[in-house]
Amino acid sequence: MNFSKIAIIGLGLIGGSLALAIKQTGFTGHITGIGRREENLIKAREFGMIDNYTTVHEEGVHDADLVVLASCTGHFTDIMNSIKTGLKTGSIVTDVGSVKARIVQTLDDMMPQGVSFVGAHPIAGKECSGIDCASADLFRDSKCIITPSAKTVDHAIDNVIELWESVGSVVLHMNPEEHDRIFAAVSHMPHVVAYAVVNTIMDVNPNILHFGGTGLKDMTRIALSPAELWRDICSSNKDEVLNVLKKFSSHITALIAMFENSDWPGLEQEFIKAQEARKLIESD
Amino acid sequence: MNFSKIAIIGLGLIGGSLALAIKQTGFTGHITGIGRREENLIKAREFGMIDNYTTVHEEGVHDADLVVLASCTGHFTDIMNSIKTGLKTGSIVTDVGSVKARIVQTLDDMMPQGVSFVGAHPIAGKECSGIDCASADLFRDSKCIITPSAKTVDHAIDNVIELWESVGSVVLHMNPEEHDRIFAAVSHMPHVVAYAVVNTIMDVNPNILHFGGTGLKDMTRIALSPAELWRDICSSNKDEVLNVLKKFSSHITALIAMFENSDWPGLEQEFIKAQEARKLIESD
Q1: Which of A127, B30, B215, B271 has its CA 20 to 30 A from that of B152?
Q2: Is there a contact between A281 and B203 if contact means CB atoms under 8 Å apart?
Q3: Where are the domains of chain B?
Q4: Residue A143's Cα: distance from chain center in Å?
Q5: Residue A124 above 70 pLDDT?
Q6: Is pLDDT of A282 > 80?
Q7: pLDDT at residue B127 above 80?
Q8: From the list A186, A270, A279, which residue is nearest B212 (CB)?
């Protein structure tokens, strides 16, 4: 790895797992943990994720070759404002946010001379959050999307790719806008829908949710995801998620019409279409 | 168990698993398998599920104390028409259908003098279907809903309860209409939604489904369920499913309005509400 000093801001599920995973590669450099809550940072040191820590952002980054933004995306701008004058020339800033276009544009513009930003989105997660859920193999065999912009420097991209490959990820490239369009469909919309399925059932009768079998449990597991995180993802990717939600709403309206018209062959065709498509990712 | 001769019509996932599970209780009686496809019945005998088989329905049921309808619910009426004159006086007919009101009413009316019908719905399933997916422990610790009507005879109910308890199910009682209202919400609507989520993503771009992580896979696993089965469930429970789908559609419309108005605190409240409700069934 071309980094000897790494600073990770935000040691939750993703930041903590990344720190653990880097340590497990045999990394001989130094990892600084940065966060607001000291008890979390103490835990991170006890878990062997980090070598030292600070709650003062600008202190933690001053000698880092790589700074990883792994806090809530809603805090990125404030964090950048507090660290930008302290960043080392030649250092690289990267992030792990689930939405890219707005973040890449904002952070590209905030980088001081001689510092490069590379947007990244590791496709790894659990419904549980926080440092206690972190694990060294979270990224093993998972995808990580790198989203370079026109401003992104090649050697910075290469170094960030190497980082993610070293922890077991398969790295793919997308431009930030393409990323947000795709993930609005395959991740953001399904999360919103899962929350809505649970709330609809509670509306029908607040005491029946437990009658659902494993099918309902699997289907709504993502409704356990942190509400604040998903609010931020939705607001950061508003236009794309809205676009997909409207398409989804049209599908539901069409299905309702099939029920009303007792168009059971039509309904079966919709089910078959979905079943065939879903089979394609079964063995992934 | 108060049965010595059991006939099971339809040896797929549920019928086959029930046969295996009954055998595993140490049942010393006789199980006849009845179905349309002889190769499936031969397999059932090879798997040790049944003692003999026939493709002629009326032949298979003539000496049975219990007849289990485990084929597609769409065939129940035809099957009853072919077996009703051959049923033994004092025998019991039961089923395993996922929708109850219409089935219970129809079958109650078709029972010959001296034969009792008891509707049942074991809440167990997998996305795979057919005899090869059958397993003896499918019903272990799962719920089975018994749906007696005003016509159902008490001793028949007791015997069917004993059957399901012997294979490990926890038996609950509901009236058929209550059952259909509840399962429209916790099972039928979520299946329709899962199919719609997959079709929406394919609409956005047919090549992106594999970018979804484990969250999307879990959420859409039920879209692998047999299309014909779910078409029949939807048509048999049309009014209740339609009612829940309309409620769900209103939720989606309200969420779309929150996006359009950038009402992020409102959106977060919806997410929190769902998350709290979903937590209640996590440890079930």
Answers
A1: B30
A2: no
A3: 5-174, 178-279
A4: 11
A5: yes
A6: no
A7: no
A8: A186
SS (H, E, C) chain A: CCCCEEEEECCCHHHHHHHHHHHHCCCCCEEEEECCCHHHHHHHHHCCCCCEEECCHHHHHCCCCEEEECCCHHHHHHHHHHHHHHCCCCCEEEECCCCCHHHHHHHHHHCCCCCEEECEEECCCCCCCCHHHCCCCCCCCCEEEECCCCCCCHHHHHHHHHHHHHCCCEEEECCHHHHHHHHHHHHHHHHHHHHHHHHHHHHHCCCCHHHCCHHHHHHHHHHHCCHHHHHHHHHHCHHHHHHHHHHHHHHHHHHHHHHHCCCHHHHHHHHHHHHHHHHCCCCC
Report the phi/psi class of residue B263: left, alpha or beta, with left for phi > 0 and alpha for psi in -120 to 50: beta
Buried b (16+ CB within 10 A) or exposed e, B24-39: eeebeebbbbbbeeee
Whether A5-174 shares its CATH topology with A178-279 is answered: no
CATH T-level fold of B178-279:
6-phosphogluconate dehydrogenase C-terminal fold (1.10.3660)
From chain A, the residues in CB contact with B197 under 8 A are: 189-190, 193, 248
Reported as a single tens digit per residue, the pLDDT across B21-59 is: 999 999 999 999 999 999 999 999 999 999 999 999 999
State chain B's mean pLDDT as an integer: 95
Enter the tokens of residue A232. Answer: 């931020």
Q: Measured between CB atoms, does A209 come within 8 Å of chain B?
A: yes
Q: Do A200 and B230 touch (CB under 8 A)?
A: no
* ipTM score assigned to the predicted complex: 0.89
Q: For residue B85, count other CB atoms closer than 10 A to its CB.
A: 9
> pLDDT tens across B90-122, in order?
999 999 999 999 999 999 999 999 999 999 999
Answer whether residue A284 shows pLDDT above 60: no
The pLDDT value recorded for residue B110 is 96
Please report the pLDDT score of residue B221 as a whole number: 95
CATH architecture of B5-174: 3-Layer(aba) Sandwich (3.40)
Q: How confident is the model at residue B284 (pLDDT cuts 50, 70, 90)?
A: low
B247: nearest CB among A200, A222, A279: A200
Q: To probe the interface with B, which of A133, A137, A197 has the most B CB atoms within 10 Å?
A: A197
Closest CA to B150 of B116, B115, B192: B116
